[in-house]
Amino acid sequence: MYPNLLKPLDLGFTELRNRVLMGSMHTGLEEDKQGLHKLAAFYAERAKGGVGLIVTGGFSPNLRGRLHPFSAEFSKEKHADAHRIVTEAVHLHGGKIALQLLHAGRYAMHPFAQSASAIKAPIARFAPSEMSERQILKTIDAFANSAKLAQQAGYDGVEVMGSEGYLINQFICQRTNNRYDQWGGSYQNRMRLPLEIVKAIRQAVGERFIIIFRLSMLDLVEQGSTFDEVVELAKALEQVGVTIINTGIGWHEARIPTIATQVPRGAFTWVTEKVRPHVSVPIVTCNRINTPEEAERILASGHADMVSMARPFLADADFVIKAEKQQAHLINTCIGCNQACLDNVFKGKRASCLVNPYACRETELVEESATSLKTVAVVGAGPAGLACATTLARRGHQVDLFERSDRIGGQFRLAMQIPGKEEFRETIRYFANQIDETGVKLHLETEADFDLLKEYDEVIMASGVKPRHVDIQGIDNPDKVIDYQTLIKEKTFLGSKVAIVGAGGIGVDIATMITEPLENQLDDWLHDWGIDKEIAHPGGLYPFPDTSSDTEVWVLQRRKGRVGKGPGKTTGWIHKRTLEKRGVHLLGGVRYQAIDESGLHIEQDGEAQLIPADKVVICAGQESVRPFESQWPEFCEKLHVIGGADHAGELDAVRAIRQGVELGLKL
Ligand code: NAP
Ligand code: SF4
């Protein structure tokens, strides 16, 4: 069914069992106590699930290349010894694994950062020092030493991180390299560092060891590489002995989304396709590939020889095996939300996955058959209820799932209707199939009450949330005011001027929905973000076109400070940038006075203002739904409350699904 995806890849001295590369992800386990043991379990699951070649998170070849002061390093015999547990676990399941070597350069979050030139990154806290010739040569040796140790540890190869704006990328581009010696100036000089590193590694490890080079093919920053330069480097890398070239898209400091859910699927594979004819080594494409169908389409169209997927393997370790067994409908699809993976890592927490809380907790969340089987009622088929019901049923319990509406999904059903969040539909599809697979008995359009539930051994209330009622004079006028749930469900016409009360995740989503341009083809999306498909401009960028919306929108909050970022740590800037591009007014520190025919009356900085809105949309958070709550105490210990019904404030799908799974494992 996926002939291109599942076809082995012959590398001459070794063979990969399919065209799937699990892209590098920092999980936080790299630095954890007992981390390598947990990391081994994490990778073993993915190898067991059929991945062809796994690439680890980034390990620094020396002290100064660490991203954070306590980031993992791989430079000593003791590191090689410690990592054997990882490589053995992967090999046990027929997989292959490469260690990623990453020198952070000026992205290092410590005062010993080094780079080609002493130019501070806009996202860094410390300015780097300029590397001396001696330091450059020692760094090349460090890469070679680490690669040799990786080989000793049983790794099948290394990936040299040459993209995303890290050290090697900093040498390659004029943006960060204004040296005058043999490591700067002309392009030949700027690309010397990656070539010397690969040469030194090849010399250290011999011919029968995989060297992947992650090449930044589209920098998406000013003074980045042009297409001709990318091709020149790709050819030179082939000459010095790389086995595989992987694609890198966008520096970390680039202000263009490259992996978030609003990026269309496979949005950047055309970049790899452009480079591919110029080299003969296998070339890997990546970014927002999350289904076997999409991966197969990309390979069949000749865009690349392999696909790299990273987050999809947090969402489902068995992605490949399910594709092989014609069970793609059972894959738990990564929805590109970043909420439990990258957001966690950026907060210094361990990565996991919103749709799969088991990810990176393989040794802690273990699903075992229940010893005493029970009858369980779950009320509410939103994310929390679905996660709990299906976990319980997989363990052997007899589960009835009651849902008041005529379909499952809860808040995800609303989310999937927001432009750029269509992926949430996949989670509902996954749970719908899990209900069938696990034998949960689903009762739609069924209002649960005490009498219905009282005979069950366990009762789980996952009854969700409703929009918070807000007290503003005139709020009860339905011609003028609408809550976000009704708006999304009924797609009501709002007029040309809209005020949004509340600037949390949902206020931002609603503003995005209202101002969404009609066209939604990939080329339109690339154009809107100023991406130059010819890569003729350095970095592949040209000035942003005018994308302001015809609908005038105000997003308001009472709190002072930044408005419009929403809750996501790694996606907030994308939301804000999107709204700014569309000309949305973002107002903080407001007091709501009244709503009348003329619009929304507010006060800001002591001054009265009228927002001449045709409609006011209320996105002011949620309240828990707790039906027949007065009778809950009668359930005694068999009652459990999860998700929004438990806590509506900071309603959060990561917490809801994790709570559902954890309870499902406990009973
Ligand atoms: P929220 O994030 O709690 O935001 C509620 C907004 O309403 C705030 O801006 C708050 O600002 C305002 N507000 C609260 N009480 C109010 C009142 N009585 N009167 C007027 N304004 C009031 O809630 P949400 O936007 O509904 O989002 C719910 C959750 O869904 C989020 O926490 C998030 O976890 C999830 N979500 C996530 C994303 C994402 O992209 N990651 C997107 C959508 C939703 P002031 O109090 O300052 O006025
Ligand atoms: Fe994908 Fe979201 Fe899971 Fe991250 S948290 S792996 S983006 S579904």
From TrEMBL:
Keywords: Flavoprotein, FMN, Iron, Iron-sulfur, Metal-binding, Oxidoreductase. Its EC number is 1.3.1.34. Residues 375-624 form the FAD/NAD(P)-binding domain. CDD domains: DCR_FMN. It holds the Pfam family Oxidored_FMN. GO terms for biological process: fatty acid beta-oxidation, unsaturated, even number, reductase/isomerase pathway. SUPFAM superfamilies: FAD/NAD(P)-binding domain (SSF51905), FMN-linked oxidoreductases (SSF51395), Nucleotide-binding domain (SSF51971). One of its GO terms (molecular function) is iron-sulfur cluster binding. Its cofactor is [4Fe-4S] cluster; FMN. InterPro entries: Aldolase_TIM (IPR013785), FAD/NAD-bd_sf (IPR036188), FAD/NAD-binding_dom (IPR023753), NADH:flavin_oxidoreductase (IPR051793), OxRdtase_FMN_N (IPR001155). Residues 5-327 form the NADH:flavin oxidoreductase/NADH oxidase N-terminal domain. It comes from the Bacteria. It is an enzyme of class 1 (oxidoreductase). In the N-terminal section; belongs to the NADH:flavin oxidoreductase/NADH oxidase family. This is 2,4-dienoyl-CoA reductase (NADPH). It comes from Vibrio scophthalmi.
